[in-house]
Amino acid sequence: MASPPRRSRLPMVAVGVVVLAFYLSLSALSAFAVVTLWRLRPDPLTAAVVGVGVAVVLGYLSFRFGTVRLLSRLDARDMSPAESPSVHRLRDRLAERMDLDPPTLKLARFSAPNALALDPMGRDVVVLDAALFRLLDADEFEALLAHELAHLERKDGLVQSLVASVLQTVVGVGYLFVSPVTFLTTGVALGSAWMRGRPGSWPETLAGRVRLRLDEFVGLFGFGLTVFVRSQSRKREFAADARAAEVTGKPMALASALRKLERAARPEFGLSPLWVYGEVEVEDPVSDLLSTHPSTDERVERLAAMADESMTRIEVR
């Protein structure tokens, strides 16, 4: 590709100089901030405690206000004991077995049958889709409700939010320390490309290649932390399944409920279930790594194994 004439390149050179100066200034400022923070750093233990403490507080506030906003967006209404006495009796019985304060039950209409265990400020809430009462039989509904209560019992939503907040803080601190190099390489790559009259060629420069490799490193680090958080979420789903099976003694009822929910969700792709069942299975290893829920097949297999194990424990007289 031929370079533009010298006269037409002058504005590009001017832009390149401005871009270079701008990013060099950002690099200098970020380097000054990093050096200052490093000089003022406390001992490693204190720094870790303060950093984790700040991350936990921010994660807690984000979780609390986030669940309140989510609940308001769902447009859910309270289910009164008068209109659904049997459901409230079931809730009370399960909550007593799990040593929980009975959560508030709310009714909503989702794009697919769904149930959500939320932990806003105040009393815990379980939001139920109206379609569940037509889709599930009594045992399946009991198992599903026990699964939601298990999430509340373990404070799964709060724990996951706190872990994610701490890891996001780690990524942010890491990015802060590499930001001087990021700004420097960006400025040199963009500035030199503009000066040569080929602004789109910045990735081909040495500085551009360094910048792209740096982005890949930071992205890979963040991806690894995301995979870790999602893996913990899947483990908590398995744990909630196991707890529901233990409390109700009906693991196959939960397995049947999960299958029904999966089939009912396939025609539409609306609100993604947060706490009930896995995403639609796709043969994609990356999607599996990033999924917040195990596949329905995995969950059903584990529940079937629990049912088999409980059968072997029955004494034959």
UniProtKB/TrEMBL annotation:
Tagged with keyword Transmembrane helix: yes
Binding note for cofactor: Binds 1 zinc ion per subunit.
InterPro entries: HtpX_protease, Peptidase_M48
Any one GO molecular function term: metalloendopeptidase activity
GO biological process: proteolysis
Keywords: Cell membrane, Hydrolase, Membrane, Metal-binding, Metalloprotease, Protease, Transmembrane, Transmembrane helix, Zinc
Name the UniProt record assigns to this protein: Protease
